[in-house]
What we know:
Number of domains: 1
CATH topology: tt1808, chain A
Distance between the termini: 31 Å
Structural class: alpha+beta
Shape: globular
Strand content: 35-45%
Helix content: 10-25%
Number of helices: 2
CATH architecture: Alpha-Beta Complex
Number of strands: 9
Amino acid sequence: MKLNLPSYNTRVAVSASGERSIYDRLRQKYVALTPEEWVRQHFVEFMIVRRGYPQSLMANEVGITLNGTKRRCDTVVFDRHGCPVMIVEYKAPTIEVTQKTFDQIVRYNMVLRVKYLVVSNGLTHYCCAIDYQQMSYRFLPDVPEYALL
């Protein structure tokens, strides 16, 4: 599927039963190829190659506990001290990014308290900078380069 992200040489495998999987460079293993996973892998590649995010400071499927319930953040970016600075939430290209999507990532942020929230369905990308002192947020025109975090 065509995304609003740069293409790259994906590593896709097909099992004997016909199941397709894609290589996840952060988890260093093949994972089931779903539409959401297609977006995740392209977005991670974009962040590393085009925005200078260190692969070693990114993680996929990061577990958190929210109100006693285990949840998973799609991608978390860390600063050089190991503190989380960004949460990225992905949806399949056929899923519209709505207020419900933002509500989900904001709930995750109640645990991690990061500076940046990003939501993408591969076609449309939103990035918010959070200002905890002013109790406000602002949308950025693009995902910032890692050096500017």
